[in-house]
Amino acid sequence: MTELVLIQLEELRDYIEMAGYEIIYRDLHSRHPLLEGFVSLKFKKVFIDISVRNTRQEKCVLAEELGHVLLPPAVDGALYHFAEYKDVFQTQWERDSLEISVAKDERRALRYGTSILIPDQAFWDYAKSKHMWYEWYEYFEVEDWFMRAKFEFMQTKQHFKWRDLVIINSAAERRFWSLKGGSTFFD
């Protein structure tokens, strides 16, 4: 196995700033409780919720936002996240088209983010032996949701069964995974 060199939070901040964007920390949860970051292409700013500053969660969010910076979407996704922007479109077709476009852009940015924090070769090197689920995301220093996304992206490249890579110790863990979408995610 090759030596794993992980990208650190400070490096992600540097990459965003080298691309000409400023990182702004604000209370985004007051706008929407699940909004932790977004990019304003127009103003060249990356907004991150203040509650995730200097955490592993910020590292994952910044990696995805870097994907938006380097792979700009067709529509400024930052505007989409605010309800009043959707009201501009009069027809259901226009609203649906916008939602599809934004969903594709989000997926592309997340794919990019997972690829820089969890390179494919490092993933397969680690997959040479089975590990507990928490060991996966701890090893790569990412959050659970981010590791799940990487697994999903890797399954589109090469079919594998999660059971071949993840150790499940108990019936409770098995139920947990099935409640979390295990039947689609881990098959």
Sequence-ordered SSE layout with sheet pairings:
Layout lengths: L8 H10 L3 E5 L10 E4 L4 E5 L6 H15 L6 H4 L2 H4 L5 H26 L2 H7 L4 E2 H7 L4 H14 L8 E2 L3 H9 L2 H4 L2
Parallel strand pairs: 1-3, 4-5
Antiparallel strand pairs: 2-3
Description of the molecule:
- This protein is mostly helical.
- It has two domains: 9-117, Arc Repressor Mutant, subunit A; 120-185, no CATH class.
- Helices cover 53% and strands 10% of the residues.
- The chain has ten helices and five strands.
- Strand 2 (37-40) and strand 3 form a beta hairpin.
- Helix 2 crosses helix 5 and helix 5 crosses helix 8 (144-157).
- Residues 182-187 have low confidence and may be disordered.
Give a quick set of tags describing it.
187 residues; mainly alpha; Arc Repressor Mutant, subunit A; three-stranded mixed β-sheet; two-stranded parallel ribbon; 10 helices; 10% strand; disordered C terminus
Q: Roughly what is the average pLDDT, rounded to an integer?
A: 84
How many individual domains? Answer: 2
**Strand content of the residues, in percent?**
5-15%
The 3D shape can be described as: globular
Q: Biggest sheet: strands, sense, closure? A: 3 strands, mixed
Element string (H = helix, E = strand): HEEEHHHHHEHHEHH
Contiguous helical run count? 10
Number of strands: 5
In short:
The protein is mainly alpha-helical and 187 residues long. It contains ten helices and five strands, in the order H-E-E-E-H-H-H-H-H-E-H-H-E-H-H.
